[in-house]
Specification:
Strand 2 (17-21) and strand 3 (24-28) form a beta hairpin. Strands 1-2-3-4-5-6 form a 6-stranded mixed beta sheet. 26% of the residues lie in helices and 23% in strands. By secondary structure, it is of the alpha/beta class.
Length: 166
């Protein structure tokens, strides 16, 4: 297995990682950096060719871990997104709020890239979110990998992810 950091900087923010096992590719988190705006706030998704991710995991609903999820889903339309149900519920509300904030920042600060996604897009992408309980091993869709989510105790629904090759 190969683990690659997709964050643009050495600090926390815009958290995203790529796990490769043979020809299988899994993205772990898709955050947005809280100190930057526009494309500079996003992870560097360049090493992940559009459509090449087999699955996406979201560990929790903090902005620096889920803020660019709709962008990732646009680039990897067939990749299921796996998270706990509380992460999905909190994350959906947070992402809808992000659309409002980005729209305001476009108007007030002239960030032309914003919003990076829309309310309608958020409503549409939720259909590919798969909720999994902690403590139960499952096969990652589209792969030969096994995964288990573990309660991280960070915020409601947060999880650590253990991924194993079969």
């Amino acid at each position: 297995m190969r683990f690659r950091n997709l964050t643009r900087r050495r600090e926390i923010g815009a958290n995203s990682y790529l796990l490769e096992s043979g020809d299988q590719r899994v993205i772990l988190d898709a955050g947005m950096h809280p100190k930057y705006a526009g494309f500079e706030a996003m992870p560097d998704f360049g090493p992940v060719t559009p459509g090449s991710a087999d699955a996406v995991f979201v560990t929790h609903a903090h902005h620096d871990h889920i803020g660019c999820l709709p962008v990732v889903q646009r680039r990897h339309r067939d990749a299921p997104v796996i998270m706990t149900e509380p992460t999905g519920e909190v994350g959906s509300a947070m992402l809808h709020n992000s659309v409002n904030v980005m729209t305001r920042q476009r108007e007030e600060k002239g960030v032309n890239e914003y919003p990076l996604f829309t309310h309608r897009e958020l409503d549409d992408i939720r259909a590919s979110w798969i909720y999994r309980e902690t403590g139960r091993t499952f096969t990652v869709p589209n792969t030969d990998l096994q995964a288990t989510l573990h309660d991280a105790g960070h915020i409601i629904g947060s999880s650590g992810v253990m991924i194993r090759e079969n």
